[in-house]
Amino acid sequence: MTTTWASGKDGSHRATNVLSMIRLVVRPYENPDAQRLVQALYAEQLDTYGFADPPESEVASDYVVPFGMLLVAYTSAGKPVGCGGYRTYDAATQTAEIRKMYVDPSARGQRLGYQILSKLEHEAAARGATQMVLETGALNIAAIGLYTSSGYEAIPSYVEGRRETNRAFAKTLAADQGC
């Protein structure tokens, strides 16, 4: 858990738990806050890799409960600083896919990605998912670290035609994870 220091008017300092100031809210994919964050993710991917799946290529209904979900993380001041979603990937195998994970640069390094990912896993498991899959860019060392430290293991690409710049991961969800 990350601790930051907040300064009082009297010059004093107090420790503040950053994660306790974050609120995760389920939003429709078309929500303006969600779209700003997804567009920022897209721009970052374009800058890093020279290509990315455009946000408008997503099917918004994939992120509607019970088939999926999109979370937006808000600071206590109401600023959207992160997002992440899951959608049903294969209902027959009870597999869900993590998508659109993004944390604004101003909020990075505070385990917000872990908080979003954990909530998505919990919600997917509560709705019957037994496995999660995801893809991330090979150059996104922070994301790869997040996923491997959260129990994800590297797998061959599960999306046909993906470039070698992506890395695929999977995780079996614990039976009690959705409780």
From TrEMBL:
InterPro entries: Acyl_CoA_acyltransferase, Bact_Acetyltransf, GNAT_dom. It comes from the Bacteria. Gene3D superfamilies: 3.40.630.30. CDD domains: NAT_SF. Residues 24-176 form the N-acetyltransferase domain. Keywords: Acyltransferase, Transferase. It holds the Pfam family Acetyltransf_1. The keyword Cell membrane does not apply. PROSITE patterns: GNAT. This is GNAT family N-acetyltransferase. It comes from Kribbella yunnanensis.
